[in-house]
Fold P-loop containing nucleoside triphosphate hydrolase protein.
Amino acid sequence: MTNQSILATCKQTRFHLHDKASKEVDVEGLTIAVSSTSNEENLSNPKSKGKSKAKAETRELITQGHLRLKEGVCYGLIGRNGTGKSTLLRAMADKLIPGIPHATRIAILQQTESSLDACDNNTNNDSGGRNKAVLEYVLNTDRYKNEVVHKIDILSRSFESDDLLQPVRAIRTVRHSDMEKELFLAQKTAHLKSGARGLQARKELKSAESRLQDSSALLNQTTELMNADAIQEDTKAAMETLQDLQSQFESMKVSDTEKQARQILAGLGFQETMLNKPFLELSGGWRMRCMLASVLIQNPDIMILDEPTNFLDLLGVIWLEKYLQQLCDSSQTTILIVSHDRDFVNAVCEEIIILRDQKLSYFKGNLSAYEKDFEEQKLYWGRMKEAQERQVAHMEATIRDNIKIGKKTNDDNKLRMAKSRQKKIDDRMGVQVSATGGRFKLNRDLVGYHLTTRAEIEVPTDERGATMTLPDTTELRFPGPLISLEGVVHRFNLGEPPVLNGIELVMHLGDRVGILGLNGCGKSTLVRLLAGKTLPTQGKLLTHSRLKLGYYAQHSIEELQEQGWSDPDLTALGLMSKDVNGSLNEGELRGLLSTLGLQGRVVSDVPIRRLSGGQLVRLSLARVVWNSPHLLILDEITTHLDFHTVTAISSALSRFNGAILLVSHDRFLIRSVVEGKRDWEQNIDEDFEGIDDEQTELSGRRRDVYVLKAGKLHVQENGVEQFEQSLARRARKMLPVPG
């Protein structure tokens, strides 16, 4: 098993104040690295020296970056999978970055298995934690409030005791706990500072250590050694502290907080009957929603949301959009979001942070504005570079001619001219504009002995996900519908109302059908029925006699992860070899995986358990399409992906010549794949084949978006936009009223 630790350093660590909360972050020279150590290797070779090994296993994710967050601004953090976005968020939340004050309150939602494990640990540590109800769990995640309640509990119980010395012991316990925290901060500050500040910090550390020793002595003091004055003074202090804490608790407006928690949980899809259900009895998706609610209910200085739209239906996504927009307008909380949902990022985020090439860059505007600006910059710098290359080619030709003539005729003027032009090429070619966008001036923009030449022109390059290509379908030989449902009814148990009630659906080769609906409406049941995983209670399900069907299940990634952990050495190539059972040789399998963006040693040497979420999606897709299916049924394929890969998948699906039935809450994916709309604002790649690019023989391709509601399919004449507008009206009514 591999353990990872985050190492964070920054340029300003020695000069930052660490005791004052702030909603802003300004850290220069930030370097974040991940150090991996394997328990198995440590056990097998306990005497090996760790120093050189640690160097070999440390990977830098950010180098000399500038992390800058302004108060009250909602940021979207974008970057390819594996570039370190989640690691950066964790380093911020755990305050591993020295420039973030320890007093800053940071609330984080993390989309990792470890975050669920942490929730288990937290609930176990609380009284009755494993049976804590959903509403209670959400209300008890505010650490500051919990600390106040804990102190009130200690002090109030001491006054209820018959022992008159209990208040003395209680106030000393509370003070000792506070001093332990002070010592921790003093140790951290002394470690970070040097010079005169470091000397002062070490003095404060010694003072904190001395105070903690005195506090420990008082805490362990026996009754015989306590004097009457100390008892009276501490008892009075206990009473005053209890009164202060109670006034703080009253100012928190707990009743208003409970009302807000109920509204947030309702907005995220919780029914009233679910609020008293134990948190640990929820499925993984509902637990993540509960954790999201526990973050939204807090009033932190900085709120961090890592893939908050995962496991939300479209109503939940739109409600969260409206809630965060309202929060930005009514509070000064700084918000940092990572999400693969383009529409969500566009609606919520005011500024974009780009993590690329181990650097952080910033753009003021939403994602669409950033992509539009990126294309304009690419065009601008590309034209400048082309013009300069033509100019340099002309000058080099002139230099060659002048040298040739100068040497032939002994003309020194020609040789000097050639030398002068060569110097111009060496020193004056490059960026032709200043940092402010004006004309480049040598005496202003190239000042300093260390600067002898202008910066080279760099044309921005696209950072889209690796292109993907799906294999064409095999020939059907005779026409006919691929699959048809006639009056299909499905219920889980006799006597219960049907989940599906009178479903009518026919799909032919080339058709595109999108299924939308709220969680629990029966979408997954419908696709399982279409995939042959379950049978209808009533009605007919007919399929083409030569139909090949590919089914991507909602929990495909989790199943792959389980296989990876059960067989630690299993690779993508090994798994595919088992699946195809000799139908494809190794070369053909490598070719298939390569078309989906998995190449080289990744497929043959890297175990499945170490693949990223995006790589697992590609592998799952390979397992679905290896036999060239005529119909693809895809249930929530965008979970675990960055939006570059979502773009690559949408483009690959647009070119697929078979039929596609897509279940997703990603509006961009439905619009592009099912409706065939090229989204110019979001710059889908040039290989995309939409409704305007269809060939004549496919002009009759059916493109329908349905909403599954009350067991029936309802066609949306205006596509996903129609459903989105109806949910937006509903979401606005569910928003908490701003205080």
